């Protein structure tokens, strides 16, 4: 089973690398509204995934794995997560891939994320009551109870998102369609992971960080750590596969490079190593705090939850993009 999880993590990394979705310049470019690759790929992954997953669950081959609407946690956590993602230029799932490619700022972001996870474990008992109200788990399926209307609206939802992705691509006037193939691949990969005969869960990444941090510091005798163990172990192995993917594929393409300052950062923030290190740490730290407040990240909440047309994930995605774009405008002066 461990080797299978590693393989899926490797495939996950390979898909993201194929469209440069793990790159600092790509993600920060979305924050600066200079590159829509991330938005296009996510729209396709969620749109195609929603259609495939609805059929898969309807046939009894998979089950739901949705997150509750913890209103304050999703709103505030989403904004914080988006801000951290904009500054760092990575999300919890892309950090390990870029680390494998030699990005030093990704390593700093991982360290910041692990420390953020430790801090969240310490403060979680005090702030848990402030993350609500808990409005429960709601999806399009639970609202309609299945049936023809549910499948019709799911297909409309999915096709609409794919259409939006193509409109964004037309706006950019780009001829490269790697984002399309990566988005479809992510949808298929997620649907395989959802299968009860395979893993019976969603793809995720952010639980790894508090899990590793708590293990390293011995913060294991608490309810929060206990709640992260199962997911944390799976995601740690999965992300290890992503690190291997980053390393192997970058070596094969002969573009492995030890790098701290990326061109997108240098363009607006200069070439000071200290500045990039400090902001990489801060970005990773606050991004993980936001992810834990909301109960997930880009892969485990926005994509996997969006594929289930879960209200909590759609709401989280909206706040993440708001935090990303607001921070992009203020931080990068764009």
Which short descriptors sum up this protein?
334 residues, mainly alpha, 15 helices, 0% strand, globular
Q: What gross morphology would you assign?
A: globular
**Low-pLDDT segments:** none
Along the chain, the helix and strand elements come as HHHHHHHHHHHHHHH
Please report which band the strand proportion falls in: under 5%, 5-15%, 15-25%, 25-35%, 35-45% or over 45%: under 5%
Number of helices: 15
How many domains make up the 3D coordinates?
Answer: 1
Fraction of residues in H or I helices: over 70%
Per DSSP E runs of 2 or more residues, the count of β-strands stands at: 0
Mean pLDDT across residues = 97
Alpha-beta classification: mainly alpha
| First-last Cα distance | 46 Å
The largest sheet is: none
Mind telling me the C-alpha Rg?
A: 19 Å
Describe the structure.
The structure is a single chain. The chain has 334 residues and is mostly helical. It has one domain. Helices cover 73% and strands 0% of the residues. The protein starts with a helix and ends with a helix.
How would you summarize this macromolecular structure in one to three sentences?
This protein is mainly α and 334 residues long.
Describe the SSE topology:
Layout lengths: L1 H17 L5 H8 L5 H22 L12 H18 L6 H6 L3 H24 L12 H5 L3 H25 L5 H17 L13 H10 L5 H31 L9 H7 L3 H22 L3 H10 L3 H21 L3
